Automatic annotation (TrEMBL):
SUPFAM superfamilies according to UniProt: VC0467-like
InterPro entries, sorted: AlgH-like
Gene3D superfamilies: VC0467-like (3.40.1740.10)
Protein name in UniProt: UPF0301 protein FCH28_12400
GO cellular component, one term: cytosol
Organism superkingdom: Bacteria
Length: 224
């Protein structure tokens, strides 16, 4: 199999040509990307559901707007926590595949008696706080089965997602070739943007190339 260069920690920004309504103007943070596939969360799909309505213990740590975000079309009945720990040293942390059953950073949403996530491998040795696993730089996954008090003093921001976006082996690469996505660097502030509806334009606008012009693309392509 052709070696895949990992894009973990980068952003996928939907191009105006992407027709899938699930990803129209989407900004996806890639949490895992290798030859076995890709997994990420859409950063700019807030829902009307408050974090306190489904994960009350974590509500006080969730950034504004304090709502659950739709992370993607897959497993909408599961919750995933992504958080920034300021001052974290950049590392090479990855996350286990959902296929393995180890949902580090995830919790079954509202399912009584659901088995706790297997976190034995989710806290590597080093300076990372318990209950948080680095994905890229200061961005990491939160073990939502852990007591929030473990992270309350160190989290800079927390976002809760329902569901995620997933791609099988080679699928994302095919979409990149087809021109469905721009790949750009992420910034810690992208996870906690207080104005997520404007994130697509904001991310493009900060690029120092022709992508900055794409930010002016009208919502209705017929107006271009």
């Amino acid at each position: 199999m052709t070696e895949v260069s990992s894009l973990t920690g980068r952003l996928l920004v939907a191009t105006p040509a992407l027709a899938d309504p699930n990803f129209d103007r989407a900004v996806v943070l890639l949490l895992d990307h290798d030859e076995e596939g890709s997994l990420g969360v859409v950063l700019n799909r807030p829902t009307p559901v408050g974090v306190g309505d489904i994960l009350a213990p974590w509500a006080a740590l969730a950034g504004e707007p304090g709502v659950v975000f739709q992370g993607g079309p897959v497993s909408l009945d599961s919750a995933l926590g992504v958080a920034v720990v300021p001052g974290s040293v950049a590392g090479e942390g990855g996350i286990p595949s959902y296929e393995s059953g180890a949902r580090s950073g995830g919790a079954d949403d509202g399912v009584a008696g659901a088995p706790a996530a297997d976190t034995a491998e989710s806290v590597p040795a080093g300076d990372e706080p318990l209950g948080w696993r680095r994905v890229h730089g200061a961005i990491g996954l939160v073990d939502l089965e852990a007591p929030p008090e473990l992270l309350a003093a160190v989290l800079g921001s927390l976002r809760i997602f329902a569901g995620y976006a997933g791609w099988g082996p080679g699928q994302l690469e095919d979409e990149l070739v087809e021109g469905a996505w721009y790949v750009v660097e992420s910034e810690p502030g992208d996870v906690s943007s207080p104005d997520p509806e404007q994130l697509w334009r904001a991310v493009l606008r900060r690029q120092r190339n022709e992508l900055a012009m794409v930010a002016t693309y009208p919502d209705d392509p017929s107006l271009n």
